[in-house]
Amino acid sequence: MPVIERVFGLAEDLLRTASPYGAERTLAELLASRFDRNEVREVLRAGDSLCVVPRPLRAGVPRIVLAGHLDTVPELTPNPVRRDGERLFGTGASDMKGALAVIVDALERAVREAPRHDLVGVLYAREEGPFEASGLPEILAVAGERVLDASLAILMEPTDGRIELGCMGAAQARVVFEGKRAHAARPWQGVNALHAAGPLLARLKSRAPREVVIGGLPWREVVSATTVAFRGALNVVPDRCELGLNLRFAPGRTRDDVVRELEELVAGEAEVAIESLWPAGCVVTGHPLVAELRAACGGAAVSSKQAWTDVGRLSELGVPAVNWGPGAVSQAHQAGEWIELRAIAEASRALGSWLWPE
Asked: Active-site positions?
């Protein structure tokens, strides 16, 4: 069977094995069994996440980690697995089972043929959910130096084939405005907590994205109100209002710096509590292995990642990492999700020409 057709068939098999967030076990077991049949050297497991080492790791040889998540968002509308013209349809096609097929095929090829650089695969559960619930830290703890000593990790999230450096950090804050309850017919007897939030909302509305250049690439720092909750009723002046603020910040900023910015934005008008802070990813401009990957892709475009990915988590552990994958960004989490077969083929060929040059 031609290599590319084999990868297409593998992508279809992965799509037919449903793996919505929190229900990845069937897919994890299918892949673990497959790797066992193909005699990979080592498969480590933590829950429903896998670390795959296809052959002994060599001293002094650069090490590449190919990483991707096993889970998809829930299928809310039917999207049967099928090929239609030049597209492969199915939930998770672009995010990211097309890429998983490329990863699995490369790991299995590494069993048969020694690659130019050593390969390690990390296939993890529960990415499509809260930061704290991700399966990636669990499998990294088990994998240890197999991953932490990597020369470069490639997170194969959908990027339309671009190489995206770094990633934005993300902070979620809860901002609480306190007021005084009163009857809506006599509001002067109270203090409206919703109205108290007005000046902050006005500042957010007028605040333009802040342009930052890092590694020669542009980043746009933004902050948005994303949730609101209040205590009251239709005929009651609310005495409490909570806003959820989401700040996206460029690489290189510290936690203290981010917290200080949020506090300055609120300007003492309310209480601020940081609920989560996801680290930004380092921008590995000039990394020689990134240059090799780009050459293998035929001079792929290089851009910044205007979103958060697990490149941030890997960077925090000292692992150089980039985002690169065949999935279509526009198709992630969409009803009727698809991926271009051409994109899968190009990613597979690029890895092949890079790691197994003729």
From this structure: 71, 127
